[in-house]
Design brief:
Layout: H1 27-35, H2 38-54, H3 63-78, H4 83-109, H5 115-142, E1 149-155, E2 159-165, H6 218-226
Antiparallel strand pairs: 1-2
Helix pairs in contact: 2-3, 4-5
Length: 227
């Protein structure tokens, strides 16, 4: 069995869990708050994967070494630093692309003789390709600035047209706000042409006179009764 390399002075792993207890909480609650903190939990999980990459020949970092690193990255992200997110997305896209090419290669090797295995590798390859594309799209959206453009068009002689176009690039797509357009006034300010079908004298329908209807001849009235 290979022996572990003894860490240099001042490089010992930090496994001491330090808990800051608030005045209004018990020690147990303080520990629970510490271990349920997102930074602590994710550092614990990430360290389980990272330790495998280090092998067994060197002294691994302590749990709190991982926790301190994650907490520092969280503070930078909270302050608006997007460098970590950019690097993560770029690295993940590279890994997903490597998975796609390897799975596609295995699908090609099994093509013909082992169709079932070839189809399985092919489906996995396409999933990796799709996730790689989604990751690259997220990376592109992260670096697209947000712009807003407002254009005002003034029309003389009693009219004004205002056109407002909003471009939101932070979502990755072009989202235009509704344009507000006012038609040009045809006459002086505050006036417009009469609507079609409107009576200029305000009589919307004909008015009957007081003379009454014409009398109907008696012969015509008798004929109407016989029918």
């Amino acid at each position: 069995m290979p022996k572990k390399v003894k860490p240099a002075s001042g490089m010992e792993p930090d496994n001491a869990l330090r808990v800051e207890q608030l005045p209004d909480e018990t020690g147990a609650k303080a520990v629970a708050r510490k271990v349920l903190d997102p930074g602590f939990r994710h550092a614990l999980t990430a360290s389980a994967f990272a330790d495998k990459a280090l092998g067994s020949t060197i002294e691994h970092p302590g749990l709190m070494d991982y926790v301190d690193h994650v907490l520092k990255l969280e503070d930078r992200a909270e302050a608006g630093d997007l460098a970590l997110a950019s690097r993560l997305l770029a690295s993940q896209a590279i890994t997903l692309d490597a998975m796609f090419t390897e799975l596609a290669r295995r699908a090609a090797i099994n093509m013909g003789e082992y169709m079932d295995a070839s189809q399985k590798f092919g489906r996995l390859a396409l999933k990796a390709q799709s996730n790689c594309r989604t990751t690259l799209e997220a990376l592109a959206k992260l670096h697209q600035p947000r712009e807003q453009t407002v254009r005002h068009v003034h029309v003389n002689e009693g009219g004004q047209a205002v056109v407002a176009d909003h471009f939101h690039h932070h979502t990755g797509g072009l989202q235009n706000g509704k344009s507000v357009k006012q038609s040009h006034a045809a006459g002086p300010a505050g006036t417009s042409a009469a609507m079609l079908g409107e009576d200029a004298k305000r009589d919307g329908m004909p008015i009957t006179s007081g003379e009454g209807a014409d009398a109907v001849p008696h012969a015509r009235r008798h004929q109407s009764r016989r029918t």
